[in-house]
Amino acid sequence: MRLLFGLLAATALTACTQATVNSTEITEPVKAAVVPAAITSNASASTWYNTGASDIAAANAAMASINTKRGSAKNIILFVGDGMGVSTVSAARIRDGQIKGGQGEENQLSFDKFPFTGLSKTYNVDAQTPDSAGTMTAMMTGVKTNIGVIGISRPETRNDCAAAKAVEIPSALQHAELMGKMTGIISTARITHATPAATYAHSANRGWEDISDMPKAAIEAGCIDIAAQFVNLPDRLKAADASYDDIGIDVAFGGGRRHFLPKDAAFNSSDADSDIEGDRTDGRDLTKEWVEKTGGQYVMDQAGFDTITTTPVLGLFSESHMRYDSDRSKDNRGEPSLAQMTAKAIDLLDDNENGFFLMVEAGRIDHGHHAGNAYNALQDTISLSEAVDAARQATSDKDTLIIVTADHSHVMTFAGYPKRGNPILGPVVGVGKDTPNLADDGKPYTTLSYANGRGFGDLGDSTDADALYDVDINAGRQLTLDVDTTKPGFRQEALVPLNSETHGGEDVAIYASGPGAHLVSGVHEQNVIFHIMNHAGGLTGE
Ligand SMILES: [Zn+2]
Fold first, then answer.
1. What is the pLDDT of residues 386-414, one digit of tens each?
2. What's the mean per-residue pLDDT of the chain?
3. Are 371 and 502 in contact (CB under 8 A)?
4. pLDDT tens digits, residue range 234-253?
5. Burial of residue 44 (number of CB atoms within 10 Å: 0-12, 13-18, 19+)
6. Residue stretches of the chain with pLDDT short of 70
7. Cα(130) to centroid of ligand 1, in Å?
8. pLDDT of amino acid 6
9. pLDDT score at 80
10. What is the Å distance from ligand 1's center to 454 Cα?
11. Per CATH, which fold does 75-411+518-537 belong to?
């Protein structure tokens, strides 16, 4: 039989060929692109083939137009999906596509469209599977460190205040402040929590979020709690460089009021969760101190957020972490979404001729996973995708480097042989089937499950994953056909019973666009992310 070949008319292929070939390297005429008739005669095959070819054309165009010069990124935005491993991204992409009415697999999250990606090796100096403190320190300072410490280098310093003070490393945000950029931090966790803390603080223990969390010896040795370090950042920057004359972080949005307020009910906010909202045992009201020091505006709810028109601004929207995105509407004073906070921050920061540095953390992907609740982990990943989209629309890839990555993974797996378009939160229904597959034990099984954690649980329509800690640990095979596994309150099965599901140790992805983004290619140690931002932004000098 004679094979038939057809010519593909798609201009994408032509463009691809032209972009790839450098004229000095041509030794023989370029052959016309030929595509087998088995492809051109089949609509589905043609679509896959043509979109694949277009991707290559776009990749070549991105490579050709990238600005590789040191210091070419005026603005830098670092997005961190806390605990957003690759399986989380894949599942969230499908969930997002299915919510939008598609089959799901074909969908793209906003950062799926970024032209450059690489992998990040996340281990800490002393830990194979890392935590957020050590990993964010690597990304913010360029140096890997131990698990549990923030902004300090030396491995043997955990809890040792005096030793830690001698090895504090400036962060990318601190460099940005010193070079006259505006700066912002956003987190759906407490802004004193490990990831945001690593942008501005140095601490021998990530847990020292306010003075009541610190041992007496550390206080006596002169160590300062993380919330107080947020307030005294301008003093520390001035100590590092006497010419510094600014107020520190210009925009901060997140949760964590309890670490800023005195342990006194008289200081409670109108939506305090506890009888006494504040934790501070030194009587200081850091929200008031920050306003007096900076002349800025402090807001604590959606209405306050909506009034913001200028910097500096501190928004603390919750006593502890902000709510899960799917639970946000239940807040009685209202909380802005991650996308709203990101758009507002960029709007406030981008008037500066020196540009800005902004860190945005989707902090509760991690918390959904720890609770064994994929529903919220995926929804908060979608919320991050929307925030990245907002950032891309508000900036130009000519002058703004955007990096999206995770600090570490989790042990959620994406498995079985579900058919195309099967609900990602559902039980596995095989190709050509209409009812759930049954395992050898006669029970159904979900596409998403956890290697460890609290295991099966079912709170139905409850959207607060933290409530699942009130459901007993139920490891192993517990699922029955009558359970709706797609509900927000469902807790996936887990093999190893643990109080809290753990982080995963495999690599996470890095996505990048804008000047310097080409450096995000290959397998990097996590601390290289600082050096990419430093090269692109010239943070430590041209
Ligand atoms: Zn975690």
1. 999 999 999 999 999 999 999 999 999 99
2. 93
3. no
4. 999 999 999 999 999 999 99
5. exposed
6. 1-32, 542
7. 9
8. 35
9. 98
10. 15
11. Alkaline Phosphatase, subunit A (3.40.720)
Of 356, 319, 358, nearest in space to 338 by CA: 358
396 catalytic? Reply is no
What 8-state DSSP symbol labels residue 468?
Answer: G
Q: Where are the beta strands (DSSP E) in 446-517?
A: 448-453, 457-458, 490-491, 494-497, 503-504, 508-513
Asked if residue 520 lies in contact with residue 415, where contact means CB atoms within 8 angstroms, the answer is: no
Residues with CB under 5 A from ligand 1 (ion): 366
Sorted by sequence, the CB contacts under 8 Å of residue 353 that are 6+ apart come out as none
Sheet holding 400-406, edge to edge: 297-299, 313-316, 251-255, 182-190, 356-362, 75-81, 400-406, 508-513, 116-121, 522-525
Cβ pair 510, 520 in contact under 8 A: yes
Spot the catalytic one: 110, 132, 153, 383. 132
Task: Compute the distance from residue 269 Cα to the ligand 1 centre, in Å.
Answer: 27
CA of 192 to the centre of ligand 1 (A): 15
> pTM score, two decimals?
0.93
Q: Burial level of 502, CB count in 10 A (0-12/13-18/19+)?
A: middle
Nearest to 82 by CA among 410, 454, 500: 410
Residue found by looking up tokens 């504040």 in the block: 278
Residues 6+ apart with CB under 8 A from 7: 32, 33, 34, 35
Cα of 364 from ligand 1 centre, angstroms: 9
Question: Cα(367) to centroid of ligand 1, in Å?
Answer: 6
Domain definitions of the chain by residue range: 75-411+518-537
Strands 182-190 and 356-362 turn out to be: parallel
